[in-house]
Write a structure and sequence with these properties.
The protein has nine helices and no strands. It is an all-alpha fold. The protein has two domains: 74 residues, no CATH class; 67 residues, no CATH class. The longest helix is centred in the middle third of the chain and has 21 residues.
Amino acid sequence: MLEANKVAFFRGWVQQPTFQAQFPIGMSATDFVAKLDLNAGGVLSASERTSLINTLGIAPSDPTRRALVVRSVVDDADFNAKELNRAFVLMQYFGYLRRNPDDPPDNNLDGLNFWLNKLNSFNGNFVDAEMVKAFILSGEYRHRFGP
């Protein structure tokens, strides 16, 4: 059931108008994979890019093949490692502060970038970075529970 849901999710994703605007149906397999890799931060090796180009084959507009390629990039270990810290910091904003990082009072992503850089400098060790501690001790968090 989980696998069927994943397949349906990625197939639906590549058929969204916003996705198709960024990755037009007429795009070549090479261009499609290159742009996906660029958006993912250059996480694919040369052999992975070649494999994904071959997956698209002569039908790069086929939604099933496109979905397979997008899922392969999302499931890539390098991509996951690269995005783990960013997702963790974002989770702190949603969980502790109950807001997006660029909502008021910040109105920009400076706070998110600060914590992401700090977490990265501690190799993802949020305890040593004192990240959770800082969110819990923040006035914004503490004011949620009283004056």
